[in-house]
Amino acid sequence: MIALWMELAAEAYPEARFAAPAPGPAIDDIECRLGQRVPSDLRELLLETDGVLGEFSLDAVWTAGRIAHDNASFRSNPEFARLYRPFDTLLFFGDNGGGDQFAFVPADPGAGVVVWEHGTDRRRTVAKRSGGLPAPNPLGRRGRVVLGVSCGRVAGASAEHNHKP
Fold first, then answer.
1. Alpha helical stretches, state H, the chain
2. Which residues contact 56 (CB under 8 A, 6 or more apart)?
3. What domains sit in the chain, N to C, each tagged with a CATH number?
4. Is residue 4 classed as helix, strand or coil in its secondary structure?
């Protein structure tokens, strides 16, 4: 596979550093834990590099483990439930280092990349994309098998936030 995403990121951000590819089971774990498909663009990127570090070691694109962990945490945090609209429609995958998060909207193929602004709960599109994203699984987390993936403990998948590319 040509490292297209890594090439694009390196061209846009010469200081970017890349990790080894994410193992497929770690990406499947995101789907199992959240009950929704990982958009194909994000899956392809994670299969090339399990996270992208930007300038000053900013996690511009999170590891598969952090994507699963942080999204599950955002969705289950009672304080967040009082402060913000629900996060179930978003799939966060990175941040800007100042608290704002980058996300896909898996149920809306045309939404592109959205930035969630933590100070205002504003959600705005910052990059459009073409093509469709799969809709979320209507069974959600209730089934033992979600999205055709057996949802057991995934070896190598962790909630570790920092990685060494």
1. 4-12, 24-34, 40-48, 64-76, 78-83
2. 97
3. 15-129 (3.40.1580.10)
4. helix
The C-alpha atoms of residue 142 and residue 129 are separated, in whole angstroms, by 31
Structure tokens at 117: 């602004």
CA torsion sign for 8, 122, 163, 73 is negative
Distance separating alpha carbons of residues 127 and 33, to the nearest angstrom:
26
Residues in the chain: 165
Q: pTM higher than 0.70 for the full model?
A: yes
pLDDT per residue as tens digits for the range 17-61: 888 999 989 999 999 999 999 998 899 889 989 988 877 667 788
d(CA 73, CA 111): 23
Query: What is residue 69's DSSP assignment?
Result: H
Q: Which of 107, 108, 109 is nearest to 136 (CA)?
A: 107
